[in-house]
Design goal:
CATH topology of the largest domain in chain B: Immunoglobulin-like
Strand content of chain A: over 45%
Largest interface: A-B, 38 and 41 residues
Order of helices and strands of chain A: EEEEEEE
Number of strands of chain B: 9
Distance between the termini of chain B: 53 Å
Largest sheet of chain A: 4 strands, antiparallel
Number of domains of chain A: 1
CATH superfamily of the largest domain in chain B: SoxY domain
CATH class of the largest domain in chain B: Mainly Beta
Helix content of chain A: under 10%
Number of strands of chain A: 7
Shape of chain B: globular
Largest sheet of chain B: 6 strands, mixed
Number of helices of chain A: 0
Oligomer: heterodimer
Strand order of the largest sheet of chain A: 4-3-6-7
Shape of chain A: elongated
CATH superfamily of chain A: Immunoglobulins
Amino acid sequence: MGDPMRIRAQAQGDKAVVRVLMSHEMETGQRKDSAGKTVPAWFIQEVTASHNGTPVFSALWGTAVSKNPFVLFTIRGAKAGDKIVVTWVDNRGDKRSDEATVV
Amino acid sequence: MVSRRVMLRHSAEAAALMATAGLLPTTASAAWPQAAFDAKGLADTVKALGAGAPQESKDVTLTAPDIAENGAVVPVGCACALAGVKRLALLVEKNPTTLAAVFEVNDALEPSFATRVKMAQTSNVYAVALLADGRALFAQKEVKVTLGGCGG
């Protein structure tokens, strides 16, 4: 379990723009520590989101996504008060879910 | 004759054995396409994602800066308004792993995404739209990196 995500979902007409900021190291597996040993890869592989319980968004990520990843997507037909749940799974099998309400 | 089903089961068993022996990198998600993330260059990556030869297209939009001061955080976005787009992918040509991210497109979403990627050095960035009929359309832009985002 990582730290909580920051999720902002804003209604714009009949759509909702969702911005998510996750807290994750996103190690590439290329970096070496001060002892010269390679730091093993540790990164988010899968991000999903649901709108009022229906899965809508799904993304697969590699090591090239930045540390503390940011993602923006737009859900059609979402309005103020709807519930958005975002979940990520990393390559160690660790996962985290956070929810937000469209404003 | 070995049926496809048996063959698949055998390879799954072999993979499980290799995983327990620590030979394979640990992958938590079964859906994560290892081959696509291992591929180098635009053509190989698109092939590994199961599409044909990529063609440049004006219908795909790539949003990226001209110059990135910090290669560790490069804001990029991709969009494609064509009908029949299944997936949108972001690629960085000269990174150790070319493929950065794949976004699934469906009717519930606007086909437009943005994220931040790491870039090792100045390179072409591609937004690739994978269509339902197997075609792959891309847009490209060169992003100059003044400070690399890998290693340290």
